[in-house]
Predict the 3D structure of the following.
Amino acid sequence: MMTFVGKRLLQLIPVLLGISILVFLLLHLIPGDPALTLLGQEATPEDVERIREILGLNEPLYVQLFVFLKNLVQGDLGVSIFQDVPVLTLVLSQLPATLELAFLALVIAVIIAVPLGIISAVKQFSWLDYVSMFFAQLGVSMPVFWLGMLLIIQFSVNMNIFPSFGRGDPLVESFIMTIQSGNLYYVIESFKYLILPALTLGVMSAAMITRMVRSSMLEVLNEDYIRTAEAKGVRSFWVILKHAFRNALIPVITIVGLQFGNLLGGAIVTETVFGWPGIGRLIITAISQRDFPVVQGSVLVIALLFAIINLVVDLLYALINPKIKSN
Amino acid sequence: MAQLEPANNPEHVTIPLKKSSKVKDFLSLMVKSKSVLIGGIIVLIVILSAIFAPLIATHDPNEMEMSKRLMGPMEEGHLLGTDNYGRDLFSRIVYGARVSLEVGVVSVSVSLLIGVTLGLVAGYYGGWLDNIIMRTVDIVLSFPVLLLAIALVAALGPGIDNVILALGLIYWTNYARIVRANVMALKEEEYIQAAKTIGSSDFRIIFYNILPNCLAPIIVVATLGIGIAIVAEATLSFLGLGIQPPDSSWGWTLSFGMKFIRDAAHLSIYPGLAIMFTVLGFNLLGDGIRDLTDSKTK
């Protein structure tokens, strides 16, 4: 097991390096002189020179890459052209909102997907199975932002239950305030803002996890030990939950973990629809302001997080899968 | 069914000869799968609307009539209503199918070209070439796909060509992995060894002996890929990074509709339905073909 962990950690190094180089090269994909493109045609030569200095464009490419990587290791992601603030400070200030959104979306996805997937598998080819598979198919076919718009039309415009824009107090803070005051008001207020974006973001993952739970359960339900348990007279509810689902869980955990990474990417669009002040909105605003260091820094942070989450999922998989454990 | 020997003679083994062609077999199999049938019909409808857009559309999609702004569905001959410039929404959606299909098909072709070539090379030659290609795949896959697409288009600049290029440059990894895995399994087969023994060139073995046998999984992933690319284009256009006005795609129309979500919800609903319908078609078709080819191999 330790060899596996060590090997997997070693594999992460070239990937992290590759991610960093790719993000570094993004700036050089900009057609023409990046400094001029970022500032627009009416920029003065002094401004262009200033941006060239900030971006380090006057050095040869390999020197730029070396400086980029050296700064990166020291936690320096550059400075925002537009706000004159370190990029890392900006990214870290927005990251909690994105993580909160992605985490709740994942919780919603699991709450919807696990029961639906189990029922579909147990009642295979029943109308329940067909209906849930139909919704799973719709879930993966619709654009995330469109679902967000539909939810806004229904719950914000028509019913006026949830706000369509912005964020309340951070959920963790609301929990603390609720515990301190004994008043549920704070948590409810935070949830009011969080629920529509989280639902929007969670539905696509729910669709994917449902399909995974279903196929994984179907495989396990055909195993001999399930028949043995049934033959012993174990109640079917327990057979499904204790014998089948526990064993079906291994691939499900993998896909749930990977979904969390995908949710970080999907959050960019959801945040734009709901005006959620997270890292996604930071990226989109930075693109419109041509604040390229912020775009680079934010993309890099999410990609690094994504790679680390994938690593953790792999390690968890090895931990719960007895076959890998014994090897 | 033709037989070489009379069937009533038990001493002779009967060998059935296939009369029907492979294509015919495949088509009859396709009809048997509901998923392929429904998906195929949906895709066909979208393709036909794209080709015959001028005949199907009731208005010029870019014609503005300021007196008919933000009309609801079925008002004054506008089937799905109008936008805030008085342009007919139905006609814009019909023409939008062209953009979506173009992005889907061309970007998947770019991915196929890169992914299949690299997958074949990595799988066939192995060694350091395989190592470099697969590590590159790992790096590209380390990014959330949408994030990488946004970053690439942000650097390249908005516009449909750059969207196609960005999507093509991202999704090739799927093809490379599948083709590589298939090639690695296939190259140990006896007929490949035989081809090598009789002195066939690597090029001939790769393109005539190996590639045709990897086609089934490639077709499945490409079909699903078209749907994924259509959603990605819509998303990028929604974020203002895709197609630029006066051209219009479903995603851009949706982004536009977002501004009028309180007064004219139809602008947000119908283009989204068009995207969902089309992507559903490609997904059903892809899933169906996978099930068919899987059961065949079983």
